[in-house]
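Field notebook, page 445. I keep forgetting to write these up properly, so this time I am using the form the group agreed on. The chain and the ligand, glutamic acid, are recorded exactly as supplied. Prediction of the bound pose follows.
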Amino acid sequence: MLRFAPSPTGSMHIGNLRVALLNFIVAQRLKLPLMLRIEDTDTQRNIAGKDEEIFKILKQMGVSWDQLVYQSANFATHLDYAKKLLDEGEAFYCHCTPEFLEARKQEAIQAKKPFRYEDGWALAEKESNPNPVVRLKGSAQDMEFNDLVKGTIRFKAAELDSFVIVRANQVPTYNFACAADDFTYQISHIIRGEDHISNTPKQILIKQALSRVLNTPQTPTIYAHLPIILNEDDGKKMSKRHEASSVQWLLKEGFLPASIANYLATMGYKAPKEIFSLSEALEWFELEKVSPSSAHFSLAYLRHLNHEHLKNLEPASLAKLLGIEPAKAPLARLFLEECSTLAELQEKLNAMFAPKDIAKDYEGQNFYDKCTTLYHALKAMPAVADFNAFKQEAMQRSQLKGKDFFKPLRILLTGQAHGVELALLYPHIVPFLEQILTLESAHGC
Ligand code: GLU
């Protein structure tokens, strides 16, 4: 079983979504179940409703899961495991106060030595501190694990000192809850961000100890830590400050889930083709081919992919996404010439169908008068299907020609001063002429 284990502590970042997506792809390819585990044990940082937001985004992206678990529901199991570890001598109570540990750290700094917790300190403060933490015994040996993306990763014994698994307030630590659940659900593949690499040796030690005390063989685990995503401005880690890092922002801007999935699957990956759907990726994606070096986010490239995906949509699907009647889809398709997102298309359509503000492009009274003249001429005309015939008739009735005719015409028909060729738009405008030819009440007569 695989798992995607988001914490409901903030909005979903594209880095998290990439982890979700790759877990889904690998689970599908290996025909293994995928668990969605909401890691909600940090009650201070949990934000109400974030779990629902995660479900919604994953569904929109086409990522499904077979089992849903809230980590907090396993709280009793975590404490039960901790008790067994204590009973079997794999873990011990540590009464050290923060002040005591801080003093030892200062000593290490003075002696220019790395700080390492010593098990012999555990009872030193027993009298003054009746609320101990529980520590799992560290490792006296160096450790290594093989990562499918990053290769072999080694840790020195000096870094693997005994560490806290249950805090003084009886709350399991993040590493303990996470590893305990991975053990319980026999997780076989752990795919997550590389910021978790330093947690891995601790989690391996926890699972090894659990396997011993519970007398249950450990499920062999394949690890894959995905490189972080860097932002395009300064090449630093893409943080929440970058709006494009928020999946919700991208969806709100009108990036299609299919393009976002396409983009995330190609980050640090040489895909066999540029434009593909998630179901296509299921046919060829291989986790071991993900590059170990960090990926750079490019909004321009995502826009390009989105443009291609929008072009490939059936008109009916495009209309549905834009919430417009199907007859307006040809207009949306034409606007694709100058747009790359649904929000930009929406803006063009809104400008076309909203009452026109002819003062917006006010170029003096003269221009305003031309717009008004043309507007009245067009209103009085019968509908003409052919653009050339329509032009002739409108020129004749308005007595305007050249730029004096075309610029007001474009504004009256599209609400914009520039854009797609009118000759291309016009045939699809005809059915809506009456709706399109309206002026803002301030200018209308
Ligand atoms: N809850 C962790 C996070 O959101 C993920 C833990 C894991 O995948 O092991 O970063």
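OBSERVATIONS:
- The first strand starts at residue 2 and ends at 4.
- The chain has a mean pLDDT of 95.
FOLLOW-UP: compare against the apo run.
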